[in-house]
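request received
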Amino acid sequence: MSRGLLGLIGLALAALAAAALLLPWAPVATLRAADPALAWTVLVELRLPRLLLALGYGAMLGISGAALQAIFANPLASPDITGSSSGAALGAVIGSYFLGLTGPLSLAACGATGALLALLLLLALAGRRADQLSLLLAGLALSLVAGALTSLALALAPSPFAFYDSFAWLMGSLDDRSLPQAAAALLPAGAAAIWLVSKAGVLDQLALGEDVLAAGGHDPARLRRGVVAATAIGVGACVSVCGAVGFVGLVAPIIARRLVRGHPGRALLPAGLLGAALLTGADLLTRLAPLGRTIPLGVVTAALGTPLFLWVLVRHQGAWRG
Amino acid sequence: MTAPLLTAKAISLAHRLAPTDLALRAGALTAVIGPNGSGKTSLLRALGRIERPGGKVYFDGQDLDRQAPAWRAARLGYLPAGREIAWAIPVRDLLDLGSRAAADERRAGVIDQLELGLLLDRPVDQLSTGERSRVLLGRLLLGRPRLLLLDEPLSHLDPYWVLGVLGLLREAAHSGASVVVTLHDLHQIGRFDRVLVMKNGELAADGSPRDVVTSPVFERVFRISADAVADLRG
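response:
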């Protein structure tokens, strides 16, 4: 990818980040006139965690999607379609309502465990280098089962308000998250993202097949386990704080690969940047809701992502033959 | 007699390859033949340490398992039987994937010999299997590895390219590489220096093409007469 293009994405990201921090401006301006310290508190304690989560979660989804697509040799693999997001949500619900966990870090661990179990099940069901159909079907089955079990867990939860409480979270939301919550999601995600990006070169070579990688002295099985564990930890931690957000992890890598001449590993970093931009942009759109109402983040990413996804699907039918 | 380039001691794979000793000389073109499921690919995989349950492989006297990826990538080229590539990487990029970029002159030579010039900007996933075979072979030849392990390099190729690729492999052997090739089409075995015959995961015969084809082992292994497939008069 050219430096110019990378710079352009970076610039767009910075603009989106500034907008996410400052918009809507009116309440900040009013507060600033009355009490400058309070305005500052709103920016740092309300809007900053939200922005950091949007950037970090979006980047994690983009990088994870790109890495999963590389190891499955399949452009449809992504945290949502492999069922790992749903698995993470189930893990967090069980941790929160049945294990009585409240600390953001322990919930993040539950989310990561759920995501990991879902990915391991998927590997067992669909096999590695799975063809499009078995990956899609196995992932779909896992997502449906995890979703149903999440609903069941909420219905049976000791708290009668479980359903109501968790609806906004389940649909994806960055509202009212604290800085410690942001840290619980973003520290594991950051570590996972750094590890994944450090494997970009090997993931590129994986395009030639696992055997070629093994002949070159690498261990493909260890790479696969590492990618599965890293995406589960990163995505799981983010889902436990922000809920499951679809499409970003699928669409960002598909666009990113088109910017880097098809290289699956080299796409990781741009996929992260695009994911961050997509989620920050989507979160900005949720603020268009009338006062006192919220538009779930997952609804916006689905609305943005589906047309993009369909466009890629139609334009590149050749590349999608199973 | 110089020391062999590669020495394999008791290499084995569970249920697929019985413990086998083998030495490969630099400059030799070796064919591995055998019926379906006889262990041809397993032998290649064990030689390249793609799977490594048993035995040892020494390359230039060095234990292959102990070498860093960069060391191995510079010396060993492996072509798997499957030619699928899931990603739309342009041929130009694929040629350099996983190795240091070759010198321009070398690069131009390989592109010319394999007639890849017109394919350079096409995404590799849109090529025919035969074209992709040539691209993957070109990628290996660019790195000038001293050991080439090629699983069915002649499959998917038209007659012109079967001969063309055989010529290139002979050229690689001339410049000092050891080339090991699995073969299904026995018509070509006369062009090799050495033939290894696999049966039920064991090395059943090892010798010059003439020795192997005229030995009683041949008919026992393949259940056809040697005259039916190999013309060794020339």
